[in-house]
Specification:
The chain is α+β, with helices and mostly antiparallel strands. The chain has a single domain, classed as Lambda Exonuclease, Chain A (Alpha-Beta Complex), CATH 3.90.320.10. The chain is built from eleven helices and seven strands. The strands form two sheets. Strands 1-2-3-6-7 form a five-stranded mixed sheet. β1 and β2 form a beta hairpin. The longest helix is centred in the last third of the chain and has 21 residues. The protein is globular. The mean pLDDT is 95. The protein binds zinc ion. It holds the Pfam family DUF3799. This is PD-(D/E)XK nuclease-like domain-containing protein. InterPro entries: PDDEXK-like_dom_sf (IPR011604), Put_RecE_PDDEXK-like_dom (IPR024432).
């Protein structure tokens, strides 16, 4: 299990199972490519060159220069590199993998940056706007992008797996940079009480995921994602109140 696979199961079991069986791979979204581009800039020059090479058609215009999204990504990278606090928060060993067991299932995590001396780890996130509000069914209220993308959940799981490996709870930080021009930025910390809720949530959801993954229970379709839209066959009409 990984945090992204868990989130994928919550979003759509049918698509996740289809992907796990290797029958379907969602195309790399533009946002995902921009994300890897920005991340690789803080990993190593080799990693950055690798991403540039892999996605050169997406990044570079045929007549030279980069597409607007990547010019923006370059501004985001510069914004972080020019900020002392953000760079302190990102200071550590990049892209470290750990494994552990939580709720009877093996997990694998990849930490953007971990600093064993300071007992902290950090994750770099790109977002639209630091202060935008998103409706969250999980929390039953408007939240920031951090909750909306389940980053508190991610930090809670990472914190537990890192503890299993090091014997200690490390402090998580998110270094956030926005897609605005000029980009906004922030280093975010978490009140530790937030992690209890996330771990209870993981424990509550994991049995169903295990059962679907082992093909004990039939995966449910979300009827919203790209996979469900592509494979949908209508069999009934719905009242407008069921749309939201
Ligand atoms: Zn779906």
């Amino acid at each position: 299990m990984s945090v992204s696979q868990f989130k994928s199961f919550i979003a759509c079991e049918a698509r996740t199972m289809y992907e796990l069986k290797g029958q379907y791979k969602a195309p790399d979204s533009q946002a995902l490519i921009v994300g890897s581009y920005v991340h690789s800039a803080f990993e190593s020059p080799e990693a950055f060159a690798e991403v540039e090479e892999k996605y050169s058609d997406t990044i570079y215009k045929k007549r030279g220069g980069k597409y607007a999204d990547f010019e923006q990504a370059d501004r985001m990278i510069e914004t972080i590199k020019n900020d002392r606090l953000a760079m302190i928060a990102l200071d550590g060993e990049p892209e470290q993998m750990y494994t552990g067991n939580l709720y009877g299932i093996d997990w694998k995590i990849k930490v953007d940056s971990i600093n064993h001396g300071k007992r902290r780890f950090s994750d770099l996130k790109t977002t639209q706007d630091l202060h935008k509000r998103y409706w969250s069914d999980k929390y039953g209220k408007f939240t920031s992008f951090v909750e909306a993308w389940d980053y508190v959940f991610q930090m809670a799981i990472y914190r537990e797996i890192i503890k299993q490996n090091t014997g200690e709870y490390y402090t998580p930080y998110i270094v956030a940079v926005t897609k605005e021009n000029p980009p906004n930025k922030s280093v975010l910390e978490f009140d530790p009480s937030r992690f209890d809720f996330e771990l209870e949530y993981a424990e509550f959801k994991i049995e169903r995921i295990k059962s679907v993954k082992s093909e004990g229970e039939k995966p449910e379709r979300c009827e919203k994602c790209d996979f469900c839209r592509r494979t949908k066959q209508l069999s009934n009409v719905i009242e407008i109140g069921d749309l939201i």
